[in-house]
Amino acid sequence: MKKVAATETTSPDFSEWLDGPALIALRGNDDPASAFRLGTREYDWHAHARGQVLCVEAGLIHVHTPHGAWLLPPRRAGWVPPGVPHRVRVSGALSGWVLLAAPAFCAGLPARPCVIGVSEVLRALAYRAIDWDKQAALAPEHERMAAVIHDEIRRAPHEALHVPMPDDPRLARVARAVLDEPGSPRTLDAWAAFGAMSPRTLRRLMAAETGLSFAQWRQQARLAHGLDLLARGRPVAEVSDALGYASPSNFILMFRKALGDSPAHYFSRRPDGQSG
């Protein structure tokens, strides 16, 4: 197995290696010495030379990019292409994994950041890849597994956990205000007036710039805030009230439709064995 020249991999940060193995996998935990440290913390704006696939087994990761914000609950993964600026906030995530893909490996993968579903195949191979030599070119059997990982990422379903940010200054002002106060009782007409535009213009711009109706976008913003509060241990009734729902049952219904489970069951589930 050919070792990579030391001059090509001098940085201790694997995400900055342009050379080296096509794929590097790291286990995440709250150990200060971890190359992929989780727990509860924030990482300010930065970018990496390698593409990243981030996944946590419990807790929550918020990722902000120039294209918007999205959430990574357990069993979902975030894809960040090489060179894309992003800011990360981790809430109560004690275990997980990250795949660091060399630029050539990223060919054919999404050009923009997104949230994808994690298949059992992808998860199992990610944990197997953690044990691969990080200083060596991939062995033939590892190349075959890496090719399957590439296909799993490329074909994975995209999840509706993204809150895209519009570019129009008026609409962006409205969007920032909604994110600051997701439980606001303001109607669409009131938000349009806040943005100095007509309701029709607000609807048209939101659909054109985000691909969502205003109601859909607002619900995504509420879901994002609700997941954050729940991950921090807030009770469902308090979260429901903070988001402006008439009752906890209404919030639970929205949550179940979006994520396929009730908040209580969703956050009570724990990962199974983590070795692949």
From TrEMBL:
PROSITE patterns: HTH_ARAC_FAMILY_1, HTH_ARAC_FAMILY_2
CDD domains found in the cross-reference section: cupin_NimR-like_N (cd06124)
HTH araC/xylS-type domain residues: 172-269
The keyword Repressor is annotated on this UniProt entry: yes
GO terms, molecular function: DNA-binding transcription factor activity; sequence-specific DNA binding
Pfam families tied to this protein: HTH_18
InterPro entries: Homeodomain-like_sf (IPR009057), HTH_AraC (IPR018060), HTH_AraC-typ_CS (IPR018062), RmlC-like_jellyroll (IPR014710), RmlC_Cupin_sf (IPR011051)
Cited SUPFAM superfamilies: Homeodomain-like, RmlC-like cupins
Keywords, alphabetical: DNA-binding, Repressor, Transcription, Transcription regulation
Protein name listed in UniProt: AraC family transcriptional regulator
Organism: Burkholderia stagnalis
